[in-house]
Amino acid sequence: MSDKRLTNLPKPQQMIAVLQDKQEFNPRYVELTFELKEPPTFEFLAGQYLSIQVSPEGERRAYSIASPPSLNHGFRFLVDFAPGGVGTSFLKNLTFGDQIKVLGPLGHFVVDQSSKEQALVFVGTGSGIAPLRSMIDDLLVDRQDKRPIRLYWGMRHESELFWLEDFENLNEQYKNFEFYPVISQPVGDWPLSTGHVTDMILAHKFEPQTGFYLCGRQTMIQEVTQLLKKKHQVNDSFIHFEKYY
Length: 245
Ligand SMILES: Cc1cc2nc3c(=O)[nH]c(=O)nc-3n(C[C@H](O)[C@H](O)[C@H](O)COP(=O)(O)OP(=O)(O)OC[C@H]3O[C@@H](n4cnc5c(N)ncnc54)[C@H](O)[C@@H]3O)c2cc1C
Prior knowledge:
alpha/beta
């Protein structure tokens, strides 16, 4: 492998974690905070995910780590409860102190730290914001990365948004960070952008050698990738993605 990021990935291991906090932003999106029991700490790269055992029969589901690697004694998930299958039902029914079996860290969706990418653009829809939050906290707060960083976050309704204040604070605090929330079906008086993340990618300009990191449903990833290649002449090697479903 020539990509240094991928040769330095931490080794996955079996872990046990305990539910410590549950923050219900709205009926659909919930943040779950776990503390590690065994081992007491772990290493991962921002953008990676964990595989959780969600049934006694051993069924598993993947959830991105939404917290940054500097928080190494536990992790946070951002879960979309809408699918309602075995994975989301398992997480929904957890109560404080419950233990979960975890395998990880897993995945290659991590930021290129070489000098190849001179600007970074993150595009997420729905719960696809989870790994992007970890990556952005890691870059801005922990690494003090000075590259221009932009986040486009698409959601259906404004009432479903969360972490808005956190991203707005980063926007104020870090001159190299720009945040664009976009709502496809606003119900009230939404003052910011309306439409889809693809509308913004179409309308905006990007510097050469920008790395793009896309996370969410397959159709969004395909549409944004097409736009980046056809409209903005972005080379494949600058486009990274994590497909949720
Ligand atoms: C690498 C990776 C990381 C992931 N990280 C997260 C994460 O951080 N947070 C999170 O909420 N989910 C995440 N997912 C999705 C998660 O693994 C499960 O697929 C999801 O929770 C649904 O599981 P389920 O068992 O409840 O539903 P299932 O019975 O597995 O699926 C039910 C149906 O819902 C669809 N579906 C799956 N996810 C969604 C969704 N978000 N919105 C609408 N429909 C959906 C499926 O395609 C399927 O048709 C991730 C997936 C992958 C591959």
